[in-house]
Amino acid sequence: MRHFFLVLYLAGLVLIQLSPGCENAALAEGLPADFKFNGTIDRIAASPNPGPGLVVCEPISKTNSTRVADFGAGTSAWLDFVVGGQPQCGRTTGLHGLDVLRIELERPDLRMTEKEISKLPSCFGISHVATGLIEGTPKNCRLTYRIYKVPELKVLASRTIRGSLDGLARQLPGVAAWMSKSIGVKQRGVPSNIYDSASTLSFIGNIRWRLDKANAAENKHLIRLASASPLAGLLCIECEQKQDPKDVRLIVDRLVKTYPNNVLMLAQVSQMETERIPLYLLSRCSKQLEANVKRFPNNCLLQSAEAEYKFKRFKPDEQLAAANHCVSNSPDTSRTWLRLSWTLGCLADNIRRAHPSEKITLDEQQKLHALDLRSLGAAEQSAKVDPLNARAWYEISRHASVAGFPEEADQAFQMLMKLKHDVDTDLFSNYSWGLELYGPHRLNDRTKRIEIAKRAGNDVRLSQSQRQKLIRDTEDSEVGSFINRSK
């Protein structure tokens, strides 16, 4: 691990600028007047146009039929997968990114009007948005999609299909081809094995935004659908912790064989825990990913997935180069800066694990401090691009504490506590870090530590096992007593 610094391009080096308005009132509103960003920002060369970033919103429902409404939502998920999953769509948001977008907008779904899409944040790399309308009955309904170029809100095309739900499902490949052409992607046709029935799409539309809360029967049905539906298989991987590892391995194997170039699939598999995916499958996905990266080097999601694979294979220099490329491809996207911050933090952790503090050399200390500052700087950029990204403030607080900026660590954590979290699983990490940050080995603020403990105790989303772990980690019976309480 000799080289820790980002690869700088030899020509055309420019300092990436944030899009206008990113350091806006939303950022300043929750921050103290004296808040100071202390990190170091890398100079990174901007890539040529990485391609479009498409979000397909669920069609607004004008029907009394829940089945029709769910079917409409399922078609948007299918089109996101088929159209947005093409490697030519270089700024594809991905499943988790769409969920984060929905949460930040404080919406139960992404059914949006033209007026509402005008307020979509630029920090998700979105260049095109498709909105829809569905009306009628299961036997006779009409589905319309309209594509906009954003942020101009220019209408590029509109298309309506009619028929029964089964008939509409059979027309979706044609809609996908039309949608691809409208956003400037030449699609070679939708593979026949990507087709989903109307009943499958209705189920997917119903469960899409509540995968983490699905019951046992719904999970079993999703597994059954995954035997024939790549989209259902992708959703199974998204909620892999709730599925049998054997089922998940079969699903991944099937996905890689039947739809190997889908970017959303490759990115989702890269996020899987290594103990839940066999080495041969990981290797196969890695090879498929490398082939796609060579053909489409400016695809942000592919580069992010490659960074994840390099991390799993302990190749830090290549991991860093991929994370650097992510930012280069999409500098106005919060998640790319967060990926870079996390990668730099991993490199710093590698040094700390390899060299106990009492044996670290001066040269290593300097490298370590530089990495800490750069990790902090990348996390700060993530928050500047998207002030509502709770994970960015979490990373700022952590890296600021390690880099020796206790005031920034404190203020960033307070900002974190004001925001909605991406997913409930982040809650435990947030409370755990807060208890550590205000503990005796860091800021040593008992008042704030007890305040965090009280919030954890009153948060019904924490499981009992998570509460017990927080109590054990505090090593303080009084603080632990507050965590053990509940509403």
Radius of gyration: 23 Å
Unreliably modeled segments:
1-28
Please indicate the count of domains: 2
What are the secondary-structure elements, in order, as H or E?
HEEHHHEEEHHHHHHHHHHHHHHHHH
The helix tally amounts to 21
What is the average of the pLDDT values? 83
Could you say which structural class the secondary elements and strand pairing correspond to?
A: alpha/beta
Task: Tell me the distance between the termini.
Answer: 50 Å
Beta strands, count: 5
Helicity range: 40-55%
Please, could you describe this protein's structure?
The protein is of the alpha/beta class and 487 residues long. The chain folds into two domains: 25-48 and 320-483, Tetratricopeptide repeat domain (Serine Threonine Protein Phosphatase 5, Tetratricopeptide repeat, Alpha Horseshoe); 54-270, no CATH class. The protein is built from 21 helices and five strands. It has helices spanning 25-29, 66-82, 95-104, 114-117, 165-182, 198-207, 216-226, 230-238, 245-258, 263-270, 279-295, 300-312, 316-329, 334-354, 362-385, 390-403, 406-418, 425-437, 446-458, 464-474, 477-483; strands spanning 54-56, 60-62, 128-137, 140-149, 154-163. Strands 1, 2, 3, 4 and 5 form a five-stranded mixed sheet that branches. Helix 10 crosses helix 11 (279-295), helix 15 packs antiparallel against helix 16 and helix 16 (390-403) runs parallel beside helix 18. Residues 1-28 have low confidence and may be disordered.
